[in-house]
Amino acid sequence: MDLTRVLVVDDNAALAKAVQRYLIARGCDVRAATTLGDARRMLEEQPVDILFVDYSLPDGTGAELVRWGLDKQRMVTAYCITGVAITPNVVEAMRAGCRDVLEKPFDLEKLDPLIVAGAQPPTEISTWRSHHAPNILGEDPELIRVLCTARDVAESMSTVLITGESGTGKELLAQAIHRSSGRRGPFIALNCAALPETLMEAELFGHTKGAFTGAVQARAGHIQAADGGTLFLDEIGDMPLAAQARLLRVLQEKRVTPIGADRPVEVDVRVIAATHKNLEDMVEAQTFREDLYFRLTVIPIHLPPLRNRTDDVVPLAQSLLAQHNRTSGKPPIALGADAETALRAHSWPGNVRELAHTIERACLLTKNGRITSETLGGPMRRLGRGTPAPMRQAPMPQLRSVDSDSLNLRAALDSIERDLIQKALERTSGNRTEAAALLGLNRTTLVEKLRKLE
């Protein structure tokens, strides 16, 4: 059996030699270098299975070496070594292709699982997908690249930021990463947009008995609940700045202090965050902390919108239809050719979630066992490819009678708003993203209005 070939690159010659000796004793073929130039010459002479590289080198950066080595196919796996675990430089190294980050100082025993993982050829993506991401459907090349990234980083402890429009499947991807991570703890999800600011910190960090009015007993927060597992923070862009500061400390110290507590509690939590917002713009506008942004974007993953995956639309619809046919207990329903044309032509502002609701609604409305463009509804008809779907004008509700002695414009407007929101939710089968689009609102605004209107 061939020895695992390793190259260690660090300007600290003593550290490079120590790592080299340790890995040789583990049966690896190991070389060491202290500069980018020497490392590149060694890689040109002989490719390696695994590269360990410091970010800061005398004549360049580790990111440059990783990017070059992967492009030239001179390495299979790369790990970044750094004295500061999370900085913009380390984020750059991860984007260049490093599988994980190793923070100095470290016990040499920590290299053992990295060598095992790095020396193994990547699992065939179809096999990985069938085990860990069976609900993420489609064969678009960009989607496959996303799944490959998720597979490669799943077993690391690095934070992941998943970006993409609403309905693209960000939580499904987070669950797939957790399932293949090997972490034994639970997957705990928190939607930051669904909680008012006054409850956010209590839900996230927990609280002691009597910490505030209404805290009749101590309660562990989502961070402690996810101990040993994964905490998924959906819509992280909606997290208040005060909670952002406390979350940053948890990520840095691996400890959480419940509200009202005197002592922190150690936690072993891997954080995956998601958002449909542009966090870089929010950092520029000072509505999102820059230090938290860099802490979260160690591994950035962007899910493409469905309108960029035109060839996936009909296969997705057919898969959703097959699921319905298996569980409905009724005669099977087929997808007509005109319906397929309409599905391809729609721009899908609600992405895969909108498609799922559309197929579900069509299955309920079809009468002859075949879904047509008419069954799909107005927004599906006569649309050119890539043309945004026109918003359907909700009928103006009848004004409720108002007593002549208590004419109140605000009450009348609230009544109209409530009726319009109700009709939009009914028309979209409760899908808030689609309802917000019908009303000309963004989803966060609609959620806030629903909270106020109860």
What are its keywords?
single chain; alpha/beta; Rossmann fold; Helicase, Ruva Protein, domain 3; 5-stranded parallel beta sheet; 20 helices; 45% helix; globular
Describe the protein in words.
By secondary structure, this protein is α/β, with parallel strands linked by helices. It has 4 domains: 5-119, Response regulator (Rossmann fold), CATH 3.40.50; 125-302, Rossmann fold (3-Layer(aba) Sandwich); 306-380, Helicase, Ruva Protein, domain 3 (Orthogonal Bundle); 404-453, Homeodomain-like (Arc Repressor Mutant, subunit A, Orthogonal Bundle), CATH 1.10.10. Helix content is 45%, strand content 15%. It is built from 20 helices and 18 strands. The protein has helices at residues 13-25, 36-45, 62-71, 88-96, 111-119, 125-132, 141-153, 170-179, 197-205, 222-225, 241-253, 279-284, 290-296, 310-328, 337-345, 351-365, 373-376, 409-427, 432-439, 443-453, and strands spanning 5-9, 29-33, 48-54, 56-57, 60-61, 75-82, 100-103, 160-163, 187-191, 206-207, 219-220, 230-234, 255-256, 265-266, 270-275, 299-302, 334-335, 370-371. The strands form 6 sheets. The protein has a 5-stranded parallel sheet with strand order 2-1-3-6-7, sandwiched between helices. A 5-stranded parallel sheet has the order 9-12-15-8-16. It has a two-stranded antiparallel ribbon with strand order 4-5. Strand 1 (5-9), helix 1 (13-25) and strand 2 (29-33) form a beta-alpha-beta unit. Helix 18 packs across helix 19. The longest helix has 19 residues, at 310-328. The termini are far apart. The model is unreliable at 381-406 (pLDDT under 50).
